[in-house]
# Entry
Amino acid sequence: MSTPPDVRTTIQDKLQAALTPDFVDVIDESAAHAGHAGAASGGGHYRVILVAGVFEGLGQLQRQRRVYEVLADEMKSAVHALSMTCLTPAEYEAD
# Structure
């Protein structure tokens, strides 16, 4: 019997499959939020950094909506808070 992937790995795998980013990093910031209202155990706080060509021509809100669509199931249960940095490859190179 295999061990199910952790939430961080699931987020990363789903974003990789759906958006084919040049770069994706998922950081679990849950420990810093232990005791926070709505997430008393501290779980479910993540930061995502994505660099993807699919973001070309989209505003920040549209980019974040794309990420929320991909992670819809996780947002209903395992993810309490999600911070995002969504860049195009050109924006990433300029930064």
The chain has one domain: 7-94. DSSP finds four helices and three strands in the chain. The first helix runs from residue 7 to 19.
